[in-house]
Write a structure and sequence with these properties.
Blueprint (H helix, E strand, L loop, with lengths): L4 H12 L5 H14 L7 H9 L4 E5 L6 E7 L4 E5 L6 E20 L3 E13 L3 E4 L4 E17 L3 H7 L6 E4 L2 E4 L3
Antiparallel strand pairs: 1-2, 2-7, 3-7, 4-5, 4-6, 4-7, 8-9
Length: about 180
């Protein structure tokens, strides 16, 4: 039986899976970029393109816990700086263009923790970006509609809502700082 691109992605990630290493991230990154080349006529992808869901779970691995989500975003949608707790994450752009900036949290006497922007990357369709545990980044849809895939090492809903391990930042007087609980 022939596998579609999503099934192939899952099978390849399961084969590559293990503890966080350079090789595991590189393999999963390559697998995600291959998924981004899927034919838009594959039923699972055609449904995403037609429905444009804000969030749809595409796969949750019952053995390893990794999750693949799809997100449709309109031009201008901005997601403020955040990390992903203990998890590492891959973002892949299937269509549209995204800007993803990275930040370093710095202890500042006058503001507590503040963010300093490291860099900004334009991420075009067919490309993916990796963020490791503790990396702080934001996302902005600069050309939409965009369709993103977000591959996470673990369930981030649990990481964020139940365990409070995700750090989110807010802008106060022109400075990005930790959002008060």
């Amino acid at each position: 039986m022939t596998q579609n691109a999503l099934e192939t992605f899952v099978a390849r990630v399961r084969t590559s899976w293990g503890p966080l290493t350079t090789e595991v991230v590189a393999d999963c990154h390559a697998h995600l970029e291959a998924l981004l080349q899927a034919a838009p006529t594959e039923p699972w992808l055609a449904s995403l393109i037609e429905d444009r869901p804000a969030r749809r779970e595409l796969y949750r691995d019952p053995d390893h816990g990794f999750v693949l989500l799809a997100h449709a975003e309109d031009a201008g949608l901005y997601r403020s700086p955040h990390d992903h707790g203990r998890s590492w994450v891959l973002y892949g752009v299937q269509s549209g263009d995204m800007e993803m900036c990275t930040y370093a949290p710095i202890e500042a006497e006058d503001h507590g923790v503040r963010l300093v922007r490291r860099d900004a990357a334009q991420v075009f369709a067919g490309k993916a970006m990796a963020y490791l545990p503790g990396d702080v980044h934001d996302t902005r849809c600069v050309a939409g509609p965009a369709l993103l895939f977000r591959f996470t090492e673990r369930d981030l809903t649990k990481e964020d809502k139940e365990e409070g391990r995700v750090t989110r930042f807010v802008e106060r007087d022109g400075v990005w700082t930790i959002r008060a609980s």
